Each structure stands twice: as structure tokens, then as C-alpha cells.
Automatic annotation (TrEMBL):
This is tRNA pseudouridine(55) synthase. Residues 85-262 form the Pus10 N-terminal eukaryotes domain. It comes from Potamilus streckersoni. Residues 271-502 form the Pus10-like C-terminal domain. The keyword Thylakoid does not apply.
Length: 523
């Protein structure tokens, strides 16, 4: 058969190629696994109509074999390979049909996902590694001249062939393009109940290598697994061929049943960033729960994230910010940078104008907070929040009280202090959630403005991570020096405002500015 281009296969001798094809047919290989083990690596060929692939493989068989197989089966030379394939366990058979693709579409529609491109991630039973190795050893025995120097990695993988053949067709069913950089992932977890049993002999041969491993949440499975692709491949490189042949049938046996498949769908996390102001002295940054009891009706996180969740419909969210303020501290100025990680969002197609409208909705819902510069950022962009956490500069305004009237000259002397290094033990008030440690921090500048004899406003510019309240009252000597020691009289703090967080992030948006809100590509 003329395939229209030069086919890359392990062997170009027609007689030998026919003999190898015959071996693979009689060993129970499906059509696509026959091509894999012949060395066909052209994605375009795997995409051809099924009848063309069948005709090509049929053209390779010697006429005597065609006649014999047709006579024995009374139907067709490939009747034998309509059974579950000994190599792919049916993954390239029953799970490469339009009916299967319709099931995938139904799952996406059921979960109400929004997407215009997709990628497929396959998890293949681990025993498929052993079955392929078994077939390769069998081919080395029967066709040594062709397969003597071949390794398992020379055979195109089940995953790759599935994607080559089915990616475009699945895309037609979904009405979306198959894109390796898509953020919308179709997870196909193929299950074969006999997989662990077939791998069992490896545990007897190499017990130290096979230690139970907890299954990741991303795999959509739960529990523990003994055999993984990594440890099985590792063991195969150490087992002599004769030992493997004595433990595992070569060629591999016909499976009793096809694989089943669990279909799950997810979208990569999206990140919504902005800056917030907090004007209330009764509002915590995150939900405040003590001994199982809720303190406060709401929080900054909830006021921001509830409308975001309603728009993007994620499974969950994670709120992060550049530092945090206490319940009784206001966040003024240009606000505090924050980011909301949206886990598995179901709705993702939004313009910057949609986000501007969302920002307006948040701001109109409360007088306690305001947000600005709301936008979608990449995962890499969010690293800015963590980078240089202690190098950022923050400005504060504190209203302070002194036990005795404070002389003007003492207040004036404060402005002469530059880059004051202080030592802060973990404050008593946060010891329940922070480890005990001594941290050096820097007060870059300070100045004071008198209110009356015993009250003044203290303006501070400090290194991020400085505990301002403790710097004022000393925390029973746990922060030194402090305002009590600098003024030589007891000092306490009555009110505190954060005036600025000097982090130029995220990008400042002018009113009405349009930016690209979302790319469905992995960055």
C-alpha cells in the first residue's frame, strides 16, 4: 500500500516486515500497537482513517497468512485482535472511539466548564510497561536481527499514540483545539484490576525498591500505591532477560477484560491580583476562629473572595497578601497587594472590563474595604509577593500615649534617628502561632507630632516584618530598643495605621484601561 510518504519503521525488508507483523497479530496486538512495535513514529499516519490503517497492516501480511487467518476466523484476518489487546489493554481500541469522546464531553458539560482548547493527560496501568517489555523480548527472540538493539524507549508510547490519533478527533467533538499548552486538562485514568498482580513478582525480586507511596491528589485517586512507573522502569533495567522470561509470560497473555477509565476534568489555577484598603478597626484579614467559635461577621478575605468565587466558580480559593494587619489596624494609602489563587475555576473567559465591573461590585458592597487594580496575573508574577519579604519598606502612623508629659526636645530627637536596628523576640500575642525566635529589624526613619502633653503621632518607615506595637511599648522588654527606652518613660500605642506598602505590584491600572485578562495557554 502506498502511504504517501516514506514510512519510518524498524525494518524495510518486505518479507521480514511481513513476518514481524504476523508475529504481532498472532500475539494479540491491536492495529495501533502493531504500528508501535514496527517503529512507526509519524503522528500523521496514526491520524489516518481506520480503514487506511487496517489496509496498510493487511498489506504487510503474507498472502498465506491472510488466507489462513480468514479461514480460521471465518471473518477477517484481524478478528483475533478484536479481543482486548495484549499490549495496550484496550486503551487504543475501545477508548479511541467517538462514543468514548462523547462521554468526555458529557463530563465537561455536566461540570459546566468553559474552555476553547484542551490537553489530555493519561495514566496508563503500570503493568503495561511489563507487557511491552515482554513483547520486546519476544520479538528479540523471534526477529533478533531487527530488535536486538532496540530498547523499550524505542517503541512509541501508548500515551503518545493515543494523543496523536485521538487529539484532533476529540477536539472536533468538544469544539475545541488540542493544545499542549492549554490550561484545561482532561485527565484519563485507565484502570486494569490485574495490574498489581501482574507486577507482583517484582516485589519478590526487589523488595527494597517497592515501598508504598502516597498517591497525589492531582491523580484523582486516593490511598497508597506500591508499583509506579518510576520504580518498575528502574527494576526492569536491573533484571536479566532470562529472569524476566521465567517470571512473566512472553509474549504477554491476552487480558481477561478491557481497561476501564475514570474521566476527570480540571483547569489550571488562575490568579487574581489587586490591592486593598481596610478602613475598619473591627475587621480581620482572614476568617477569625478561636476554639471553634467565629469572631466577627466577616473578613477582608471574604469580602474580596466571595464575589470573585461567584464569577469564576472555582472549587476553592487561597488568599495571600504582602503581609497582614491586625484586626484593629487600618490599611490606608495605595493599599496592600494581594492575590487570590482560584483552584479549578469553571468559568475563565473574562475581559479586563469584566474584572473592573467585579472590582466595582466589591467596592459597592461594603464601606469597610476597597480594592483597586484588580487583574489576572500569571503564577510566576505571584512570586513577587514572597520575594524580598523582609526587604520591603512599610510606612506607619501610630497614635501613642506616654505616662508622663514628653518634652519637645525628646520628640524632636526622634527625627534624627536613622536606620535603627532593633532586636525583636516573637511577641507574646503571637507565640501561639509563630515559633520563638529573635529577629533583627530596621527602623529606617521616624518622626513625631505632638497631640497634647501625653499623646503624639509617630510616623515610621520600617523594614517589612517589624512588629510596630511591640516597638512602641517594648513587649515587656522583648523588643529592644523601643519607644519606652528611647523616651525614657512608659509608652503605649492607641491606634495604628499602615500608610504604605512599598511594593510596585500588581501593575497599576488607569481607569478604563484594557489589558488581556486571560490566556488559556500555560505560561
Amino acid at each position: 500500500m502506498d502511504v504517501g510518504f516514506e514510512m519510518h519503521v524498524f525494518c524495510h525488508n518486505e518479507t521480514t516486515l511481513g513476518e514481524i507483523t504476523t508475529t504481532l497479530v498472532r500475539a494479540g496486538s491491536c492495529l495501533l500497537c502493531i504500528l508501535r512495535h514496527l517503529g512507526v513514529r509519524s503522528p500523521h499516519f496514526y491520524c489516518r482513517p481506520w480503514k487506511d490503517i487496517e489496509a496498510y497492516v493487511l498489506s504487510l501480511l503474507p498472502s498465506t497468512v491472510k488466507e489462513k487467518e480468514s479461514t480460521e476466523s471465518n471473518t477477517h484476518p484481524f478478528a483475533i485482535v478484536n479481543k482486548p489487546c495484549t499490549l495496550c489493554l484496550g486503551i487504543l481500541q475501545e477508548h479511541s472511539t467517538k462514543e468514548f469522546f462523547e462521554k468526555i464531553k458529557e463530563q465537561g458539560d455536566k461540570e459546566d466548564f468553559q474552555y476553547s482548547s484542551f490537553i489530555a493527560s493519561l495514566t496508563v496501568p503500570v503493568c503495561a510497561i511489563l507487557r511491552q517489555h515482554s513483547m520486546l523480548l519476544f520479538l528479540k527472540d523471534t526477529h533478533k536481527s531487527v530488535y536486538e538493539d532496540k530498547e523499550d524507549t524505542d517503541i512509541p508510547s501508548i500515551k503518545d499514540v493515543w494523543k496523536w490519533r485521538n487529539g484532533p478527533v476529540l477536539g472536533q467533538v468538544l469544539g475545541a483545539s488540542f493544545d499542549q499548552k492549554s490550561q484545561f486538562d482532561i485527565l484519563l485514568n485507565f484502570l486494569y484490576p490485574e495490574s498489581d498482580r501482574e507486577c507482583g513478582f517484582l516485589l519478590d525480586l526487589k523488595p527494597d525498591i517497592f515501598k508504598k507511596r502516597k498517591i497525589s491528589k492531582k491523580s484523582k485517586k486516593f490511598g497508597w500505591e506500591t508499583f509506579t512507573r518510576a520504580n518498575v522502569n528502574k527494576v526492569l533495567t536491573t533484571i536479566p532477560d532470562n529472569v524476566f522470561r521465567s517470571k512473566f509470560q512472553c509474549p504477554p497473555p491476552v487480558p481477561a477484560k478491557l481497561c476501564s477509565c475514570n474521566i476527570s476534568i480540571c483547569h489550571d489555577a488562575l490568579y487574581v491580583a489587586g490591592r486593598y484598603n481596610k478602613y475598619s478597626r473591627l475587621l480581620s484579614q482572614t476568617p477569625w476562629v478561636i476554639d471553634g467559635g467565629r469572631k466577627g461577621e466577616t473578613s477582608v478575605e471574604e469580602l474580596i473572595c466571595t464575589p470573585i468565587d461567584q464569577l469564576f466558580k472555582p472549587d476553592e480559593h487561597r488568599f495571600s497578601s504582602s503581609g497582614r494587619e491586625d484586626v484593629d489596624v487600618r490599611m490606608l494609602g495605595s493599599g496592600r497587594p494581594f492575590v487570590v489563587e482560584l483552584i479549578n475555576p469553571h468559568k475563565v473567559k473574562f475581559s479586563q472590563q469584566d474584572l473592573t465591573n467585579l472590582q466595582r461590585k466589591i467596592n459597592e458592597s461594603t464601606e469597610d474595604i476597597k480594592v483597586r487594580d484588580l487583574q489576572i496575573v500569571s503564577k510566576e508574577d505571584t512570586l513577587v509577593l514572597k520575594e524580598g519579604e523582609t526587604e520591603k519598606i512599610k510606612s506607619y502612623l501610630a497614635v501613642c500615649w506616654t505616662e508622663d508629659p514628653v518634652p519637645d526636645e525628646k520628640l524632636e530627637q526622634l527625627s534624627q534617628i536613622q536606620d535603627l536596628k532593633i532586636q525583636q523576640n516573637t511577641p507574646i500575642r503571637v507565640l501561639h502561632r509563630r515559633p520563638l525566635a529573635t529577629r533583627e529589624r530596621v527602623i529606617h526613619t521616624m518622626s513625631a507630632t505632638r497631640i497634647d502633653d501625653q499623646h503624639f503621632k509617630l510616623h515610621l518607615s520600617t523594614q517589612a516584618g517589624t512588629y510596630i506595637k511591640e516597638f512602641v511599648h517594648g513587649d515587656f522588654g522583648r523588643t529592644v530598643p523601643n519607644m519606652t527606652t528611647l523616651l525614657d518613660m512608659d509608652c503605649d500605642i492607641l491606634e495604628l495605621d499602615v500608610e504604605s506598602v512599598e511594593l510596585d505590584w500588581p501593575k497599576k491600572l488607569e481607569e478604563g484601561e484594557e489589558t488581556t485578562a486571560l490566556s488559556e495557554k500555560r505560561v
